[in-house]
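Long-time lurker. I teach an intro course on protein structure, and each term I like to show students one example going from raw sequence to a predicted 3D structure in token notation. This year I'd like something fresh instead of my usual example. Would anyone be willing to generate the tokens for the chain below so I can use it in lecture? Attribution to the forum is fine with me.
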Amino acid sequence: MYKRMQGGCVPRRRGGAAAAAAGLVAGVMVLANAGAAGAQPAPPDPCSPAAVMRAHAAAMTQMADYLDSRPDVQQVFRDARTKPTMGERHNAINAYTETHPDVAAALQNIHQPVRDLSTRCGVPMHQGMMPQGMGTGGMGSEAMVPGGMGSGGAGHGGMAPSP
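-- Reply from a regular --
Happy to contribute to a lecture. Here you go:
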């Protein structure tokens, strides 16, 4: 066990056993890391309330950008906001989009992802989707999009409180 050398005894090295132990530890660590790396978290639920809110937020951001780029359309929305009922507001926007198919198409495209999510997830997009006070004062743009969900269907695009 001990090898006598000049100046005293020193333990004899057992190179094979130490190397094997080090290799075993390294192997266990590699396997543990591979298992952790291979265990991917589940993808987020595409129909979760957070996903619904993200779809609405994206549509509202695009709508705001569109209105900023089109002062004429923004004025139509401003004028519609003065109407006393949601129906009258909807009619004012609808009358404009019927005579301006480019605007109607742009609004349809902006809100298409919200409609797709509603269809895919079976989730109606209506005023109950947003807490009271978070709406736009009855100017939910989904209700104003030609063919949108605002008239006689799923509601006001989740953005407007009840009139």
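Some talking points for your students: The first helix runs from residue 15 to 38. Confidence is low (pLDDT under 50) at residues 130-144, 146-163.
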